[in-house]
Design brief:
single chain, 205 residues, Tetracycline Repressor, domain 2, mainly alpha, Arc Repressor Mutant, subunit A, 9 helices, 2 domains
C-alpha cells in the first residue's frame, strides 16, 4: 500500500469535514439574517459577515441568495425529519394517542426552535409553493405511518380518501398560524392534548 494514499485520504476527509462545518455555520448565519431582515432584505454580504467569512467564500459554497435560502430550508427540513423519526422510535410502545401527541409535539417544538425564520418562510416565500408542498408531503408521510397504526388498532376509522394525514397536518398548521398571529411565543406544545382530542373526535371510532 502506498503510505501516501492513507495520508492523502485523511487530508481529504479533514477538508471535507471542514467544508461541511463551514457550510453549516453559513446556513446558521443565513437563518439568523433571513429571520431579521426578511427573505428579500437579507444580503449575501451581511450573511457572510454574520458567519465570519468573506463574501467570496460564501459564494464558493452557494451560487446566490436563493441557493443559500434553499439550502437553509433543506437543512431545517432534514433536522425536522430526524426529530420525527427519533420521536417515532421513542414512542413506538406508547398507546396510539400518546404516540400521535409525541409527533405533533415534535412538530411544534421544531417550529419554536426556528420560529422567526419559519414564520418568515411561511409568510413571505410565495415562490416556494412547490417546495413547501413537497416538505408538507414528507411530513404527511410520517403522520401516515402513525395514523395507519391507529386504523389497524381500531382507534381510527379507515380514511376513504386518504385525508387523515392531510386533515391533521392542516390542524397543526392552523394552530401555528393562529399562534403567529397572536404572538403566543413558546406555548404551542400546550395545545397538543387538545389537538389530539379534537382529531380523534372527528376521525376516531
Amino acid at each position: 500500500m502506498n503510505p501516501n494514499s492513507s495520508s492523502e485520504k485523511r487530508v481529504q476527509n479533514l477538508r471535507s469535514r471542514l467544508r461541511e462545518e463551514a457550510g453549516q455555520a453559513m446556513i446558521a448565519a443565513a437563518e439568523a439574517v433571513f429571520a431579521e431582515r426578511g427573505l428579500s432584505g437579507a444580503s449575501m454580504g451581511e450573511i457572510a459577515a454574520k458567519a465570519g467569512v468573506a463574501v467570496g467564500t460564501l459564494y464558493n459554497h452557494f451560487q446566490d441568495r436563493e441557493a443559500l435560502l434553499d439550502a437553509t430550508m433543506a437543512a431545517r427540513k432534514a433536522e425536522l425529519k430526524d426529530k420525527l423519526d427519533k420521536r417515532l422510535h421513542e414512542s413506538a410502545r406508547e398507546p396510539f394517542a400518546r404516540q400521535l401527541g409525541a409527533i405533533i409535539g415534535a412538530l411544534f417544538e421544531h417550529f419554536e426552535e426556528h420560529r422567526q425564520f419559519l414564520t418568515i418562510v411561511m409568510c413571505e416565500h410565495a415562490t416556494s409553493l412547490g417546495k413547501k408542498s413537497k416538505a408538507m408531503r414528507e411530513i404527511a408521510s410520517v403522520l401516515e405511518r402513525v395514523l395507519k397504526r391507529g386504523v389497524q388498532e381500531g382507534a381510527l376509522k379507515p380514511s376513504r380518501g386518504g385525508l387523515h394525514a392531510v386533515a391533521l397536518l392542516g390542524m397543526v398548521r392552523g394552530v401555528i398560524l393562529n399562534d403567529v398571529e397572536h404572538g403566543s411565543r413558546g406555548e404551542l406544545t400546550r395545545h397538543v392534548d387538545e389537538l389530539v382530542d379534537l382529531f380523534l373526535r372527528g376521525a376516531g371510532r
